[in-house]
Design goal:
The complex is a heterodimer. By secondary structure, chain A is of the alpha/beta class. Chain A has 18 helices and 22 strands. Chain A folds into three domains: 17-102 and 156-250, P-loop containing nucleotide triphosphate hydrolases (Rossmann fold); 106-153, no CATH class; 271-358 and 416-504, P-loop containing nucleotide triphosphate hydrolases (Rossmann fold, 3-Layer(aba) Sandwich), CATH 3.40.50.300. Chain B has helices spanning 2-33, 37-50, 57-82, 90-105, 121-142, 147-166, 176-183, 191-209, 211-221, 223-228, 233-259, 270-280, 292-311, 319-338, and strands at residues 185-186, 189-190. Classes of the chains: A alpha/beta, B mainly alpha. Chain A binds chain B through residues 86-87, 90, 99-106, 110, 114-117, 119, 123-125, 127, 144-146, 148-150, 153-155, 158, 187, 190-191, 194, and chain B through 4, 7, 10-12, 15-16, 18-19, 21-23, 25-26, 29, 205, 208-211, 214-215, 217-218, 220-222, 224-226, 228-231, 288-289.
């Protein structure tokens, strides 16, 4: 967390990249309106804004994937190459996209040198030379990844490093990182930041896009805010307090993103969810915990800690090795979502794209998917009742949409997650399990989603928040820290951030052999 | 400072364990190519028990010859599958291409006013194949139509064309040039066997050691990533469709040569065997996965089992049911020996 290096760079230097007066329209919608950015070489520059602010469009234009309707882009003072000159763009700018551009069935080495594999005599690819080049490249940047490993066997962090290494191999001095931390756990984020600082010391320039404002204060020197397709401000990070940053992003005075905590559930409240001797991760000790009516409990742990497995066992997405789960005194059938649903468990899954919604179906169909009984009689659905229920959920969660008939795939990430949340709420659950509920959603949506937790608590629902986001966990009455499938510590509300983070990292627990 | 060195050491620990794990997986991945070899050996052994003739040179050559024509179509389909597409129309091209050639060069055939010289038979066959591939490419790649339905439509259209030009009859008395590839022998082994083996060898080289070949895997694995890497996705797909159709035409020519005729139903229903052989051989229907060696062992396994059944004296009426059963059996066998879920 060294803030010392955040000294502002001299302004008169030629910008590493500059976009000026950029306007871009898609049909009727304006994606960027006379917007721009100036990035000083050797800095890490943050670009923030809510979903739909125009960040992605700017990235497409800065990487030459799309051309602007008007305005100009320069790199080191000279104009950007033509759209078809892919090589030219690649030498000037590299981008680690949100969506992985790694090909799973190819090795690391081949991913690094795809379509420019070194050749021996003739046109035959020399695999030996390619592997050597790849390991030289990875060694140069101190990246310890096996060049012969298949990309499908790498974890998210390693894949990202491969993408960064590929960017470096083009000898690009300017790299765009589009939400690089979205899928990483804290330890990996720290390693990534260490890496960025190291590269920055060697003269690299970064454009860093993230929804997590604390990361921007940690790693960036400059920040640019976009809102509603326009440039709002650019300044030194140190000169913009969080409150002002949020205000610039949302266009209004910042609300308290995290609602104040209320008193925990009284011990007299009945137990709603009881987890007994649950073993969801191989070789982990048995987990025991219970949630009372109206209680909000956090399950905190990094990636691979087993917190997701425990949560998925509770909602029936996964069959635990052993142990029982009871809701309101009734045991649920292991590995059966329908059984969990019937006994009153609803959930927001880990990955909304694969398990959360059906993109091609409307909002109304998605939010009522779990409750056919509420909107139909004898197997015949009433579209009127369905749309009424959907409208209510849309209003409750302030989903931004003209109506319930819009397909979910056309919504922004934050609004999609609200639909997934709406689907969970539609069944009026006794137990609500939220797995990484705010991953990849913007500040305002985050506040709405976490606000729901408080409302559910007031209604007497027991809520289990499964996350490694401290903001998510702050709404909890107590937090169970998970490490390697084991509940290592329990925190009452009012815990100190660093202590919880340490517990999630497995530091200060009984076994210290790692 | 201590903070940084801490991170560094844990980094090294993490990655060294991944290296070990990855190394193990790598070996497994390489083995996946040879997954069917035990099954092939096993069937050979069973075949020997059923009838010792099975392992005689003549019988082995016979197996290779009967599989060579379909084998080339399997090769063609595998190229397309690896690139993440599929082409059902190959089986009709397999019949239509030599059919059109016969129609144009045969004096007794009801073709245009006058027939073409007989040497044009082979070039016409291949050209028809290439043309079909180009049309498929136009519809699928350029016009972005659904590949499955486009090639299904083409399958029916091309089959109908062959029935139309042949009036449902069989072309025979074909010129010698069209028979050569299916009938000539080199070193007592049919040319079609040599050709099939050579083409598989060439395909292994192209897929393993050329940028174009690797581009197929990249496109099949992640189309957008391939485009981002500067691969001209559309051109590669179009070329693949053309090459594959041309190969199917060549396969058809080989069968035509062996049987010295083109029947109106030549190739009818082959596509099922072709897909089965490819999947048994480890080619993924989702694209980006599989090798030519695997595809070769897939089709080899199918034809060996068929041969064992014939040698075992299985009644001809039952062959149809058994053919389907063989596909299922081979699929199960490959699932067991490779340990990989098929998708």
């Amino acid at each position: 967390m060294s803030v010392a290096s955040n000294a502002p760079a001299p302004v008169e230097e030629t910008p590493a990249a500059e976009a000026h007066g950029i306007t871009k329209r898609y049909g009727g919608t304006v994606a960027l309106q006379d917007a721009g950015i100036v990035i000083t070489p050797g800095t890490t520059h943050a670009l923030v804004g809510r979903n739909g602010a125009g960040k992605s469009t700017l990235v497409s234009i800065l990487t030459g994937l799309e051309s602007a309707d008007s305005g100009e882009v320069t790199f080191n003072g000279s104009p950007a190459p033509g759209l078809t000159d892919r090589e030219g763009w690649r030498r000037r700018v590299a981008c680690v996209y949100q969506k992985s551009t790694i090909i799973p069935n190819l090795t690391v080495a081949e991913n690094l040198y795809l379509n420019r594999q070194p050749r021996g005599g003739g046109s035959a690819i020399s695999w030996r030379r390619m592997r050597r080049q790849a390991s030289d490249l990875l060694d140069t940047w101190h990246l310890t990844i096996d060049v012969d490993a298949y990309a499908s066997d790498l974890n998210v962090e390693q894949r990202q490093l491969v993408e960064i290494a590929r960017a470096l191999s083009y000898e690009t001095r300017f790299i765009i990182l589009d939400e690089p931390t979205a899928q990483l756990d804290r330890a990996a984020i720290n390693r990534l930041f260490e890496r960025i600082r190291g590269l920055q010391r060697q003269g690299m320039t970064f454009l860093f896009i993230s929804h997590h404002l604390e990361e921007i204060y940690e790693i960036c020197q400059r920040v640019t805010v976009f809102r509603d397709a326009r440039h709002i401000l650019t300044d030194d990070v140190a000169a913009v307090p969080t409150r002002d940053l949020v205000a610039a992003m949302t266009g209004e005075a910042a609300p308290h993103t995290v609602p104040a905590r209320r008193a925990g559930a009284a011990a007299s409240e009945p137990v709603i969810l009881e987890v007994e001797d649950l073993v969801a991760v191989p070789d982990a000790p048995r987990a025991n915990f219970r949630l009372r009516r109206g209680e909000v409990v956090g399950l905190a742990g990094g990636n691979g800690s087993g917190k997701t497995q425990i949560a998925e066992a509770i909602v029936g997405l996964r069959k635990a090795r052993s142990g029982t789960i009871s809701v309101d005194g009734h045991r649920t059938k292991p590995g059966h979502v329908s059984s969990a649903l019937r006994s009153g468990v609803a959930f927001v899954p880990q990955d909304r794209h694969t398990e959360g919604y059906v993109g091609g179906l409307s909002i109304a169909e998605n939010v009522t998917m779990t409750v056919p009984k509420l909107i139909g009689t004898r197997g015949v659905l009433s579209t009127k009742r369905r749309d009424a229920l959907a409208r209510k959920l849309i209003a409750d969660l302030s989903v931004k949409t003209p109506g319930p008939e819009l397909p979910v795939s056309s919504l922004s990430g934050g609004n999609q997650q609200k639909v997934v949340m709406g689907r969970a709420l539609a069944s009026k659950p006794k137990v609500l399990v939220l797995i990484s509920p705010t991953a990849g959603v913007d500040v305002r949506s985050k506040a709405t989603l976490l606000g729901v937790v408080d409302e559910m608590r007031a209604l007497g629902t027991a809520v289990l928040v499964v996350s490694d986001e401290l903001d998510d966990l702050r709404v909890c009455d107590r937090v169970l820290a998970i490490f390697r499938g084991e509940i290592v510590r329990e925190f009452e509300a009012g815990w100190a951030d660093n202590e919880l983070v340490l517990a999630m990292e497995g530091v200060g627990t009984t076994d210290d052999e790692h | 400072m201590t903070n940084i060195s801490d991170t560094a050491t844990s980094d090294v620990e993490v990655s060294s364990s991944t290296v070990v794990a990855a190394g193990r997986r790598l070996r497994l991945a390489r083995l996946r190519d040879f997954a069917l070899v035990p099954a092939v050996l096993g069937v050979a052994f069973v075949g020997y028990l059923v009838n010792p003739v099975f392992l005689h040179k003549g019988n082995l050559i016979l197996i290779l010859q009967t599989m060579s024509e379909v084998g080339i179509v399997v090769l063609a389909e595998s190229l397309i599958l690896i690139a993440g597409r599929m082409d059902l129309s190959l089986e009709s091209t397999f019949g239509l291409a030599p059919g059109v050639a016969a129609w144009l060069v045969l004096p007794n055939a009801p073709a245009l006013g006058s027939h073409l010289p007989s040497w044009t038979g082979v070039p016409i066959t291949l050209a028809v194949g290439a043309l079909v591939g180009a049309i498929n490419g136009l519809l699928i790649v350029r016009s972005r139509l659904n590949g499955f339905i486009v090639t299904l439509g083409m399958l029916i259209v091309l089959r109908g064309l062959l029935t139309g030009i042949s009036k449902g009859q069989t072309f025979f008395n074909l010129p010698h040039s069209m028979l050569w590839v299916g009938q000539a022998r080199w070193l007592t082994v049919p040319v079609s066997v040599w050709l099939c083996l050579a083409l598989f060898g060439a395909a292994m080289f192209v897929l393993g050691y050329t940028r174009a070949g690797r581009a197929l895997y990249a496109i099949g694995g992640n189309r957008n990533a391939a485009r981002a890497a500067g691969i001209n996705v559309d051109r590669v797909l179009w070329l693949t469709l053309i090459v594959a159709s041309t190969l199917a035409a060549l396969g058809g020519l080989m069968l035509t040569g062996r049987l010295a005729s083109v029947a109106a139903n030549q190739g009818n229903g082959y596509i099922f065997t072709v897909f089965a052989a490819a999947v048994i051989g480890g080619i993924s229907l989702n694209g980006g996965k599989g090798t030519m060696f695997g595809a070769f062992t897939g089709v080899l396994l199918l034809y060996m089992i068929q041969d064992v059944l014939t040698l075992g004296g299985v009644n001809a009426e039952w062959i149809g049911a058994l053919d389907g059963g063989i596909i299922l059996l081979a699929l199960v066998l490959s699932r067991i020996t490779s340990g990989q879920a098929q998708d």
